[in-house]
Amino acid sequence: MNKWLIPAVTAVALLSGCSTVQRGSIPVVDSGTAVSNSERISANGGFRQTTVKRPAQAQTQAIPQGDTGVVVMVPGGAAASAPISTSPIVPGPASGGITPGPYNPSAVESAPISSGSYSMPSTPSGIPSASSGGGLSADEQLDGPVLALLTTAQQQQAGGDLNGASSSLERAQRVAPREPQVLYRLAQVRMAQGDAPQAEQTARRALTMANGRPDLQASLWELIAQAREKQGDSAGATQARQKAKVSL
Amino acid sequence: MGWALKLSLVGLVVLAGFAVYLDAVVQEKFSGKRWTIPAKVYARPLELFVGQKLSKDDFLTELDALGYRREAVSNGPGAAAVNGNTVDLNTRGFQFYEGLEKPQPVRVRFSGDYVAELSATNGSKLSVVRLEPLMIGGIYPKNLEDRILIKLDQVPPYLLETLVAVEDRDFYSHWGVSPKSIARAVWVNTSGGKMTQGGSTLTQQLVKNFYLTNERSLTRKLTEAMMAMLLELHYDKKEILEAYLNEVFVGQDGQRAVHGFGLASQFFFAQPLSELKLHQVALLVGMVKGPSYYNPRRNPERALERRNLVLDVLEQQGVASAEQVAAAKKMPLGVTTRGKLADSSFPGFIDLVKRQLREDYRDEDLTEEGLRIFTSFDPILQMKAEASVNDTFKRLSGRKGSDDVEAAMVVTNPETGEVQAMIGSRQASFAGFNRALDAVRPIGSLIKPAVYLTALEKPSQYTLTSWLSDEPLSIKGADGQVWKPQNYDRRSHGTVFLYQGLAHSYNLSTSRLGLAVGVPNVLKTLGRLGVTREFPAFPSMLLGAGGMTPIEVATMYQTLANGGFNTPMRGIRSVLTADGEPLKRYPFQIEQRFDPASIYLIQNAMQRVMREGTGSSVYNVLPRTLTLAGKTGTSNDSRDSWFAGFSQDLLAVVWLGRDDNGKTPFTGATGALQVWTSFMRKADPLPLDMPQPDNVVQAWVDSRTGQGSDANCPGAVQMPYIRGSEPPPGASCAGESPASGESVMDWVKGWMN
Questions:
Q1: Element of type H or E holding B584
Q2: Shortest Cα–Cα distance, A157 to chain B (Å)
Q3: d(CA B730, nearest CA chain A) in Å
């Protein structure tokens, strides 16, 4: 008789207390809420916004301030420089002469059109980019993979997907790391994302690859000018605009 | 009589109550998110495009790792056919951050080590195609189930039929329990006196695994039956079957329990479930009866026998024809060797990923939410790095004490700042102390580029051809201690060109230069190069007394390699949710820290390290056309052997040393550089080619004096200078060559230099 009471009591307990299930009774924990950007933005390891945040670092660094990353420091301002060493130059006994070698010979002959690693000389894969290239001038035409990815990025940007656009551009950057147009587009997207410091830095990097491409240089300087204005550096912006004019 | 009625009434109420409770349990768990899924970590997807540097062998290695089947004709996702230099394949498609990559048939033709042609099978050109990424690990909590969730429409042909035929023939007609099989089970059990025969339907098996413990008792059996019927009441057969496919336990991988056919397919065959063939399906379904007893890796004969038995059942039940079964029986088990999937394969890199993730996510998010982590890891480069370490140690094994030497290596792409490979231990697959991230060791001469760069940023005072004294010196520190550096060969080299002090790693001239520009300024340069660690401004810092980790060294050299632009090291590109929704990106970031001109000069000097200095042994192995830049490093008594260097597209830092900080038989050149050289030979990088900044000029100088010279003078060489700091041009050397030949001579010299 007593034994029958046990399940009865249990049943009552269950009916009263367990209309909702106790978590501990389930072998696998239901993890509940879904992961999302908008939740759990907390200090200790919560999710962050997808938008890029970074410390204000650009300003604090010891980059030569002024108009460009290309600052010439001429000794005493004199055009005709003095000899490097004032003391009579006597090579040390153990010191050999300067060894000639093939150091950067190609740099002097800087190629006018992209010499990026992606273009293989023997097999031209060029897809004509006249119309779809987004208004590129004649000397700025790109070929296959880069063009395709820049086009994708442009579509994403037009559709408001700036993260997707920047992701596609980074993909293009991995395909053609030395193509300044990729970085130019990336800098444009950074501007659109409201990240003027990165826009400027990315454009500066592009400039170091844009030798012999005056149109692109002018566009990059113009972008740098806008980025500087956004950062409240109107003097720097003016200087960049002058550079843009000189480039053209 | 009244008592009995009352009792049965109470019993009925109890039963009803119990049923209500069970119903709540059944629905609660089945309607919500049914499983927690550990985050999955993926390697970079391999991109294919014309002109890409990729050898056919490396491509096939990647396809093998991804579980592509080699067939005569590629005719479905995950198949590849090789014909000479052409590979036809059907990619599988994948959801990436930037969007969906569609599965498609692709033809790739190789020429040399390049992709020469990329087209669809109908011949139309494709501009760029991405393979699906290799999964390289997961973020598991201890003792947890892992699974790859699959949907019913992703299962391969035969799977459902085989499962039903083998485990529960009445599945589509019963209501959760099958009286027929229960009766049979009861008869067998009562006559045998033991509970051995199971009459469980698939629904009951699911209930048992999903809701209940493994206890064997009559009450549990009854609960199971009730829950099975309740489950059938609320959900249709398809949902139950799908849950079963994902819940079923199919094996154990160390501490990780392999659940569901989706993960089982990757675990045993390295293929997505949808691509499995009849013989593979039969094996997986056969294993359900006893995952450990029929483990095809541990008990292959048993597993084969079981598989063929399942195939026989299929023939009897008319699921497959006799010919199909006969053909399937001829197939081998086809399971891959172990460890392709577990996170034990690349512990060094996975460790880096976990650390970066923990800055942004809670542990539960990583182990439960099924996040997809996309990284920059390059499995091909990782294999080559591991092979380089192994080969070099094998080659140097004759050296006394080399057995106790540990190794660490970091490989990055200097143009993007992405980490591509990492070795944290000489046994690369050994998870433990990650020396690439955690071993803080004196960097020795690896610091010297920072000393010389500090000088070269002052072109009015220093150029590559400035004279430096390499005479002995001693200075008294603030604490009264005397610092008296020495050269490695214990000799003085008189007066040397500035670049020679770096190329030959002379300690005396470097110390003098460092003291002249100021130790604090050198440390500032180090900080601008990306080193966040703080060092005291002692003179001994100039020779690398300060300790750094290999990844910190990589950050520092990254800035040198990337034109003076610093990019924070990244191992992760993006994170997607389990549903493929974009969650977070780790974008490319860049910051100019140096004028490119001074970087151009320091790179020139670091190229000379390789051409004529302490790194010159590299060209015993590599062709001289491959321009490289780097620096050796050796700490006191050869306790640390370092090499850090880069090509255009590849940067690698190698450290060798003992965990107990004992002496090693290696200098930077005889140890770490050998690993580095071996790696670069296998990786076959692009030659370093920094565009010449427009404030740099090439000037002809006399190679003996460094004075300006004329191109046609004997001993004239071209050196780069920051504009304005070059020596005044020298006079033309009379009677050297007739005017007509001059241009030709210039051309030849320019080409020579």
A1: strand B582-585
A2: 12
A3: 12
| Angle between helix B202-211 and helix B218-234 axes, rounded to 10 deg | 110
Per residue in B459-490, pLDDT (tens digit) is 999 999 999 999 999 988 777 788 999 999 99
Q: What is the mean pLDDT of chain B?
A: 90
Query: Same topology for domains B50-127 and B444-545, yes or no?
Result: no
Contacts of A8 in chain B (CB under 8 A): 10, 14
Q: Could you report the per-residue pLDDT of B400-433, keeping only the tens digit for each?
A: 888 899 999 999 999 999 999 999 999 877 778 9
Kindly determine whether residue A205 and residue B563, on different chains, have CB atoms separated by under 8 Å: yes
* Torsions phi, psi for B397 (to 5 deg): -65, -20
CATH 3.40.50.150 fits B50-127, yes or no: no
List the helix and strand counts (H, then E) for chain A. 8, 0
For residue B722, which of A84, A210, A206 has the smallest C-alpha distance?
A84
Contact of B301 with B183, CB cutoff 8 Å: no
pLDDT tens digits for B699-717?
A: 999 999 999 999 888 889 9
Scanning B182-211 for CB atoms below 8 A from A yields 210-211
Query: Using the beta-carbon criterion (under 8 Å), do B706 and A62 form an inter-chain contact?
Result: no
Looking at beta carbons, which residues of chain B come within 8 Å of A147? Answer: 127
Task: Decide: B605 and B720 in contact? Cβ < 8 Å.
Answer: no
- Residue B585 to residue B96: CA distance in whole angstroms: 12
User: Measured between alpha carbons, how far apart are the two ends of chain B, in Å?
Assistant: 115
Confidence label for B190 from pLDDT (cuts 50, 70 and 90): low
**CB within 8 Å of chain A, chain B residues 681-710:** 686, 689-695, 698, 701, 703-707
Write the CATH number of the domain with boundaries B141-330. Answer: 1.10.3810.10
d(CA B242, CA B245) in angstroms, rounded, equals: 5
Is B540 an 8 Å CB contact of chain A? no
**Domain boundaries in chain B?**
1-32, 50-127, 141-330, 444-545, 696-752
Q: Classify domain B444-545 by CATH architecture.
A: 3-Layer(aba) Sandwich (3.40)
| Chain A interface test: which of B366, B592, B604, B610 (most A C-beta within 10 Å) | B592
Name the residue in chain A with its Cα closest to that of B114.
Answer: A120
Residues B549, B653: contact at Cβ < 8 Å? no
Phi then psi for residue B640, to 5 deg, are: -130, 130
| Stated pTM of the model | 0.80
